[in-house]
């Protein structure tokens, strides 16, 4: 242990000797404003005439460092008062009729010119609140961190207005202090950068150069000075809501009224409390469920706003998976003879949740998230005598996350994170702790990061074999044309973070590396070009058998017309031992998996054109007789106008002679199946924007997948499979689903929204013989007994305590 510690200290000393070298930061001095500023995109108030100008923008992409053209220069001014800072930007354009201004809903990509401001209230080089507005007036906000890039799920409440002129366009932004985090110093110094996107040329500029040789963007911001002695208002916001749901299927039509309130309270200028009382997530996007034949659960994206907004601290250490809160129950009900389910919930009810997060002047970030879920019961009926009973499948439970994240030297941090799940009564409880470090050299050339994690599970009172651990370390070169990354991980067999995290594999150690080369400025043929090699080896730590050996070569380019092209080759040159597909819990079993070669390529044409297309075929050739995979997807998209666009995606996957686990027979033999699997996925995305505050969106998905058994196989102790002609069972698998969401949303006031959603969904399982006819299976989804319809209306209203107090006092 002493040798390991000494080695670690030598690495830290090696990193610390790098000399800090970075281009001088631009500075902008702001002025205090005594007059009222109307956010109208006109900049007619007197204060604007005296404000200092930020100009001389430099290109980020494609020609990094190139000065902006005089005919398209950018001039930005900043002023402030006790409520907010105000940004006025004049964006000159010698061809104003070519300014792109497609309308979309908030935070969506668009074919539109853009202006943005990046603000770091701590000036620590690690995190920025980013606010941008398009030439069509659509707002985009995101939280940028040096480790996770941009998080567009973060939403703040701010004001903006744009005006198209005969010399370009003007953007005016009001960013309330409530949307920012900063220290309590009398004199503030903030990290600041401005951003401009001239969309027709795919050119991006910033005021202070973001050098693409350096990965961390926030450390390359300029400085905002002059904010002094501000008297910030109380940050207390209430967002009450009311929702009505009309649910209809063949059996019944039922209405349901819901109501609740979200609370946001600024404990001080650095820390904020968010709470939801009686939450309602009924209008979140549907999950893209698939036919999952593998040994691991399907991971779903988080769509609930409370668990996506401002959660960068809680994602440190990668042991928090918010879908566990309000997810599936931890146990299941047991049916006796002659019993059937009346109700068997697949999710539990979330009662309330709160989070507190912020950062001190010394750079210590503190985050606390807590949520409580309700008792969940299965309802069961005896089919003989009609008796009914309830069985508890998930008790009252408390979910908690604690994070302490100490930043230092503007680009490094050490983090402690702890997750805990406590269930009422004699049920499974769990605790996971992680200690991580993320260290960069002063000049941001190299990075050393790693984690040490420990899990402890008390499963129904049994404390044996409940502790596990994970360790990982990663060293990277993070700047320049040539970059590399190498590292290693170790997972013990009993490491289990899955009560409040998600982890698929344990009992292994691995070694990985990648090397990449990229151009930093355009050439005659390419706006960008990169090539990357990846190597990955994984071993079972109980037997030291090789269980993964993957290598790849990836090439990605953007041509002078801003079309994207990529191609590459993934391959496994060795046989491996798969310890997860046999699904064996009580003994060590593995199945031998053969070598493969997987060539691929993609084309994505410039989205600025009215018609654009993505095309991505892949092929997998597996070293077994008549075993291969074919996959292809194509997405044509058409922009009819700046208001209306449609895209359609068709994907097809075929696996010939796929091999996978099927069952255990009566003699405890592990049975595999050799099967052919076919998957079709059709989806449509459409939008019509009435204006920058009112949108109609369409999302449609039809997913159909089936796997048909060719023969059965028995797993041998040496990992090989032999044909089993005695085993008989129907192991064919099918999944056929339909989802349609048609929504209307109107932001009728800052932070206040009316939304209407019509949802039509269906899942069909064949009762008898399975038909491979696509049309017939699609038609079956629309049988009356299969369809579910939901019409919901939700109103959320944003109340600022200060405005309400002023209104009542008058």
Task: Explain what the structure shows.
The structure is a single chain. The strands form five sheets. This protein has a 24-stranded antiparallel β-barrel. Strands 1, 3, 6, 7, 8, 9, 12, 13 and 14 form a nine-stranded mixed beta sheet that branches. The chain has a five-stranded mixed beta sheet with strand order 2-4-5-11-10. It contains five helices and 45 strands. It is 5% helix and 53% strand. The chain has a domain at 25-228: Immunoglobulin-like, CATH 2.60.40. The chain has 810 residues and is mainly beta. Strand 23 (397-408) and strand 24 (412-423) form a beta hairpin.
C-alpha termini separation: 70 Å
**Inertia-based shape:** globular
CATH class of one domain: Mainly Beta
Quaternary structure: single chain
Strand content: over 45%
**Largest sheet, if any?**
24 strands, antiparallel, barrel
Uncertain spans: 1-21
Mean pLDDT: 91
The helical percent reads under 10%
Rg calc: 29 Å
What is the CATH third-level topology name of one domain? Immunoglobulin-like
Tell how many strands the DSSP assignment holds. Answer: 45
Number of separate helices: 5
CATH architecture of one domain: Sandwich
Secondary structure class reads mainly beta
């Amino acid at each position: 242990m002493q040798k390991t510690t000494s080695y670690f200290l030598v690495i830290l000393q090696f990193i610390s000797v790098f000399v800090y070298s970075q281009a001088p930061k631009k500075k902008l001095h702001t002025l205090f404003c005594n007059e009222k500023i109307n956010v109208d995109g006109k900049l007619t108030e007197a204060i604007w005439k005296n404000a200092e100008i930020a100009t001389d923008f430099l290109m980020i992409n494609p020609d990094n460092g190139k000065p902006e053209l005089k005919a398209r220069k950018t001039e930005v001014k900043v002023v402030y008062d006790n409520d907010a800072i105000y940004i006025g930007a004049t964006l000159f354009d010698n061809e104003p009729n070519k300014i792109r201004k497609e309308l979309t809903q908030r935070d969506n990509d668009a074919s539109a010119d853009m202006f943005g401001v990046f603000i770091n209230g701590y000036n620590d080089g690690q995190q920025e609140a980013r606010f941008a507005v398009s030439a069509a007036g659509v707002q985009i906000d995101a939280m940028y961190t040096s480790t996770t890039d941009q998080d567009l799920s973060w939403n703040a409440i701010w004001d903006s207005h744009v005006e198209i002129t005969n010399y370009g366009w003007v953007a005016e932004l009001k960013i309330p202090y409530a949307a920012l985090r900063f220290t309590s110093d009398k004199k503030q110094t903030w990290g600041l950068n401005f951003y401009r996107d001239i969309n027709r040329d795919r050119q991006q500029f910033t005021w202070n150069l973001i050098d693409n040789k350096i990965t961390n963007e926030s450390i390359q911001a300029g400085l905002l000075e002059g904010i002094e002695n501000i008297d910030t208002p109380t940050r207390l916001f209430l967002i009450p809501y009311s929702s009505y749901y009309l649910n209809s299927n063949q059996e019944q039509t039922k209405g349901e009224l819901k109501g609740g309130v979200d609370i946001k309270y600024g404990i001080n200028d650095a820390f904020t409390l968010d709470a939801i009382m009686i939450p309602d997530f009924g209008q979140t996007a549907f999950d893209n469920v698939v036919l999952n034949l593998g040994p691991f659960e399907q991971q779903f994206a988080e769509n609930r706003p409370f668990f996506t907004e401002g959660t960068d601290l809680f994602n440190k250490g990668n042991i928090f998976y918010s879908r566990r809160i309000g997810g599936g129950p931890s146990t299941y009900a047991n049916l006796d003879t002659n019993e059937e389910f009346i109700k068997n919930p697949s999710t539990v009810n979330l009662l309330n949740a709160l989070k507190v997060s912020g950062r001190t002047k010394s750079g210590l970030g503190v985050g606390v998230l807590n949520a409580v879920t309700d008792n969940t019961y299965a309802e069961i009926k005896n089919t003989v005598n009609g008796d009914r009973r309830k069985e508890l499948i998930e008790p009252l439970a408390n979910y908690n996350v604690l994070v302490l994240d100490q930043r230092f030297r503007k680009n490094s941090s050490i983090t402690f994170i702890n997750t805990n799940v406590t269930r009422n009564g004699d049920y499974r409880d769990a605790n996971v702790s992680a200690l991580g470090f993320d260290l960069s050299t002063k000049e941001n050339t190299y990075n050393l990061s790693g984690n040490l994690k420990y899990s402890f599970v008390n499963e129904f009172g049994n404390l044996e074999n409940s502790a596990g651990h994970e360790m990982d370390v990663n060293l990277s070169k993070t700047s320049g044309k040539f970059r590399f990354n190498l590292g290693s991980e170790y997972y013990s067999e009993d490491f289990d973070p899955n009560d409040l995290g998600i982890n698929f594999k344990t009992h292994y150690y691995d070694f990985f590396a990648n090397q990449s080369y990229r151009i930093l400025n355009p050439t005659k043929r390419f706006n960008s070009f990169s090539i990357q090699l990846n190597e990955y080896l994984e071993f079972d730590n109980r037997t030291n058998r090789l269980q993964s050996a993957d290598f790849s070569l990836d090439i990605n380019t953007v041509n002078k017309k801003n079309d994207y092209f990529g191609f590459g080759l993934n391959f496994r040159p060795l046989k491996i031992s798969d310890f997860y597909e046999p699904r064996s819990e009580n003994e060590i079993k593995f199945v031998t998996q053969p070598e493969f070669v997987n060539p691929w390529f993609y084309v994505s044409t410039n989205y600025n054109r009215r018609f654009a297309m993505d095309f991505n075929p892949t092929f997998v050739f597996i070293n077994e007789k008549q075993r291969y995979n074919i996959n292809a997807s194509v997405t044509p998209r058409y922009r009819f106008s700046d208001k209306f666009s449609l895209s359609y995606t068709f994907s097809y996957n075929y696996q010939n002679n796929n091999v996978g686990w099927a069952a255990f027979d009566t003699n405890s033999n592990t049975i595999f199946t050799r099967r052919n699997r076919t998957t079709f996925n059709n989806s449509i995305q459409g939008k019509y924007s009435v204006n920058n505050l009112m949108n109609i969106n369409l999302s449609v998905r039809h997913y159909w997948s089936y796997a048909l058994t060719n023969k059965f196989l028995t797993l041998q102790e040496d990992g090989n499979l032999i044909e089993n002609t005695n085993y008989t069972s129907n192991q064919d698998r099918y999944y056929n689903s339909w989802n349609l969401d048609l929504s209307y949303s109107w932001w009728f006031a800052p932070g206040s929204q009316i939304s209407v959603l019509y949802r039509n969904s269906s899942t069909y399982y064949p009762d008898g013989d399975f038909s491979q006819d696509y049309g017939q299976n699609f038609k079956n989804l629309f049988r009356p007994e299969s369809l579910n319809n939901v019409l919901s209306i939700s109103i959320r209203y944003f109340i600022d305590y200060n405005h309400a107090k002023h209104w009542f006092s008058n």
